[in-house]
Amino acid sequence: MDLAGLAVLVEAAQAGSLASAARRLGISPLMATRRLAALEDVLGARLMQRTTRSLALTPEGEAMLPFAQAMLENEAAARASVRPSSAGASGLLRLTASAAFGRKVVVPVVAEFLTDNPQVSVDLLLTDTVVDIVGQGIDLAIRIAHLKDSALIARRLADNPRGLYATPGYLAARGAPAAVADLAEHECLCLSGTTHWSFVGDGRERRIRVRGRFTANSIEGLRDICLAGLGIAVLSEWDVREEAARGALVALRLCDGELEPLAVWGVHPSARFVPPKVRLFMDALAKALR
Questions:
Q1: Is 290 helix (H, G, I), strand (E, B) or coil?
Q2: Could you give the CA distance from residue 117 to residue 92 in angstroms, rounded to a whole number?
Q3: Burial classification of residue 170, based on how many CB atoms lie within 10 Å of its CB (0-12 exposed, 13-18 middle, 19 or more buried)
Q4: Which region, left, alpha or beta, applies to residue 186 given φ > 0 means left and ψ of -120 to 50 means alpha?
Q5: Are the C-beta atoms of residues 267 and 144 closer than 8 Å to each other?
Q6: Residues 229-267 pLDDT 10s
Q7: What is the pTM of this model?
Q8: For residue 189, is it left (φ>0), alpha (ψ between -120 and 50) or beta?
């Protein structure tokens, strides 16, 4: 199949018209029409219903579209594989990260990355749910977690220091916990479904049951309720650096344990071919985290 025809199909599906697809590709509308017609002849199926006012994919066109996108991306990846790293990255980079980390850390790195690599475009998915990066065509997932064994490839980008935080007002009213066991007597702000926090001390792991009147599926929700003085939360240093610096939040130290350490990971589908856009973005994010 002619990649030029596939490009017309993909651009027309995204833009909603052959004229817009032609403008994006830098060709005439007549040429776009001819390329799409040639593709339909090769496949023996009509891919788009075209009128003077509208354009829509046929069922055959909808079935073909993801394959067309994959073939164009593979061609771009093949070209990128032989480009020197000094030439920069190119193509569409699909990223995913958690909402809070994405907004505070990843987005600023993306902005600088786009400036440094004018031939790159980025599609960023911010979500606190675990994404099937293979099924959704994600190039790189940024995760802060203990990674489970899988067929995915992970690169450790940085440590992710965490701490227990509370407001001065909460500590004045309830006192500060001195030991891990003291947390059972406090309002602990937890992610939804969390019943225990894990600590490391004296060479062993300890899990303490915690409870409180507020849970959330988002770290941002926990941070905001913590800032309201309603309990103790486990938060990452990158998330509360400013609040801790101005005294709005206090980092708590326990005599017999520290929170189990986590790391920031870059997770991608395959180690056999890592496109320059993925490798260079991981380098940029690792540098920012340092």
A1: coil
A2: 11
A3: buried
A4: beta
A5: no
A6: 999 999 999 999 999 999 999 999 999 999 988 999 999
A7: 0.69
A8: beta
